[in-house]
Amino acid sequence: MSKKDYYEVLGVKRDAEAADIKKAYRRIAMKNHPDRNPDNDEAEDTFKEANEAFEVLSDKKKRVRYDQLGHAGMEGQTSQGSADFGDIFGDIFGDIFGGGRGGQSHVRQGADLRYNLELTLEEAVKGTSVKIKIPTSVACKTCKGSGAKEGTKAVDCTTCGGIGQVRMQQSFFSVQQTCPRCHGAGKQIKDPCPGCHGRGAVEETKTLSVKVPPGVDTGDRIRLTGEGQAGTHGGPSGDLYVEVAVKPHKIFQRNGRDLHCEIPISFGDASLGGELEVPTLDGRVKLKIPPETQTGKLFRLRNKGVVPVRGGSTGDLLCRVIVETPVHLTKRQKEIMQEFHEIQATQGKKQSPRKSSWFDGVKSFIDELRP
Question: Residues comprising the binding site for Zn(2+)?
Answer without folding.
Answer: 140, 143, 157, 160, 179, 182, 193, 196
